[in-house]
Amino acid sequence: MVVSGTLYATYHQCPDQAVGRLRGIYGPESPASFRGGLAHRIFARHLTGGPIDDDEFSAACREEIGGSMNPKLASLGLKPSELGRVIEEVGNLYDRFRLLGTEGFRGAEVSLEVLPAEGITLRGSVDAVFEENGGSRLVDWKTGGLGDPGPQLDFYALLWAMERSELPVKIEAVSVATGERFEAVPARSEVDATVGRVAAMIDLIRSVFADDDGAPRIAGPWCRWCPLLDGCDEGRSASSLLDG
After folding, report:
1. Which of these, 80, 43, 34, 18, lies nearest to 209 by C-alpha position?
2. N or C: which end of the chain has fewer CB within 10 A?
3. For residue range 132-153, what is the model confidence (pLDDT) as tens digits?
């Protein structure tokens, strides 16, 4: 079983939605998720290669799309004129991102992977790593609202501690869109607690698969985009309340 940061964060929202992801049930690509993915690629490009000039920005976006995002673009069915609007929206996010600064930058899209037990892989990708106070600050960029970034950041802190044999000095989530910021200083006790939560998650998922059953469902704002919504009474009720 591969447990990613995204899967762990999804599990904290709704265990059944996480099980659905493991069963290959994903929602359709959305303009918002495509825009967010492209923005992340542009942010990484900026950090590793320097600022992107205005007259080169559109070409840089199209290069990133052609490099790895073409399948997502095809599934969206965007027309060329509509793609231009997406690039403009990403440009607005990039203008905000450029104000954040890059002092202490050490790496972008840093992959982490550990195998804590047979058949279990923990995997994640940290958007950016900065040097701070002699240690490492892990940063996760958000292109929408900040939401609840705690579980995903806790997971990254766990991966960093297990792979690098050191605690990050800080974990941070920054919404480029809204300016919201969340930060925390991981302690060994908190990392140990995350180990317990990850183990409990794996135990529950294994039991669900063994019994061919569903997992507990938790309703919330995420239900609007859940691919399991049609068969979930809790999710439909929550979506109706949020829309009404």
Report:
1. 18
2. C
3. 999 999 999 999 999 899 999 9
